[in-house]
């Protein structure tokens, strides 16, 4: 049976390694979980045993594991131990671009599917009418669905589209954008808003990454 060091692919670094050892440990455990070398509900040894196994202090082990607990990859149960969280591998989604859920999952080798919770035509709410520049009496296709990847629930998504652009909500089977034949944008080419979507994603399955760029200015 392979040791924990082997399962996470751990290699001791030289004295000049730039990355702190607790971060290296954290990344090694994270990669092992994402690869499936550590399975959901697997129990980790206690802090003392981990410290001996990796030849580090218990403080280093505690710092490495705390980040994994905060990100939802590990679960620490008082009086029981530390376990790999049950659930899908986490999906990292960059906020610098918007792509369809189906495309995102297929790019990651996962098969997307959908369970429909609601498909109906109704009047726009004041908020929806304001966001989409519609009259309060305008009708909307309301689409609420559970999004899955390889059969595992990932998100609940509610989308509303004016019946000017989508006459029948039952025209949508899996991908809304395949029916509309538009890019993942909220506006048409003429600047008119077309779609308003509100999504709830699993916190234990998604990491949303925002890349911020500092704009520098010069004074003449």
Task: Tell me what you see in this structure.
The chain is of the alpha+beta class. The chain folds into two domains: 4-84, Arc Repressor Mutant, subunit A, CATH 1.10.10.10; 91-209, Chorismate lyase-like (Chorismate lyase, 3-Layer(aba) Sandwich), CATH 3.40.1410. Helices cover 26% and strands 27% of the residues. It has seven helices and nine strands. The strands form three sheets. The chain has a four-stranded antiparallel sheet with strand order 5-6-7-8. A hairpin with a 3-residue loop joins β2 and β3 (81-84). α3 packs across α4. It is elongated and about 70 Å long. Mean pLDDT is 76; it is low at 94-98, 208-214 and 216-220.
Radius of gyration from the CA trace?
Answer: 23 Å
The gross shape turns out to be elongated
Query: How many domains in all?
Result: 2
SS strand fraction:
25-35%
Unreliable sequence segments: 94-98, 208-214, 216-220
Largest sheet: 4 strands, antiparallel
Write the CATH homologous superfamily of the largest domain. Answer: Chorismate lyase-like
State the separation between the terminal residues, measured CA to CA: 68 Å
The overall pLDDT average reads: 76
Keywords:
alpha+beta; Arc Repressor Mutant, subunit A; Chorismate lyase; 2 domains; four-stranded antiparallel sheet; three-stranded antiparallel sheet; 9 strands; elongated; disordered C terminus
């Amino acid at each position: 049976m392979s040791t924990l060091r082997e399962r996470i692919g751990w290699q001791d670094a030289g004295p000049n390694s730039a990355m702190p050892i607790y971060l290296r440990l954290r990344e090694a455990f994270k990669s092992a979980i994402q690869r499936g070398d550590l399975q959901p509900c697997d129990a980790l040894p206690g802090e003392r045993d981990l410290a001996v196994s990796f030849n580090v202090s218990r403080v280093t082990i505690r710092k490495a594991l705390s980040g994994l607990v905060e990100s939802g990859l590990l679960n620490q149960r008082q009086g029981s131990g530390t376990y790999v969280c049950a659930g899908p591998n986490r999906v990292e989604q960059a906020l610098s671009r918007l792509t369809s859920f189906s495309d995102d999952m297929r790019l990651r080798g996962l098969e997307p599917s959908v369970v429909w919770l609601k498909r109906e035509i109704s009047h726009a709410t004041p908020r929806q009418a304001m966001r989409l520049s519609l009259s309060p009496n305008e009708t909307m296709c309301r689409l609420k669905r559970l999004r899955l990847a390889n059969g595992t629930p990932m998100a609940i998504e509610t989308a509303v589209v004016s019946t000017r652009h989508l006459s029948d909500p039952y025209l949508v089977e899996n991908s809304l954008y395949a029916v509309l034949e538009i890019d993942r944008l909220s506006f048409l080419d003429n600047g008119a808003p077309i779609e308003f979507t509100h999504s709830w994603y699993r916190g234990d399955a998604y990491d949303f990454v925002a890349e911020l760029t500092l704009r520098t200015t010069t004074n003449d």
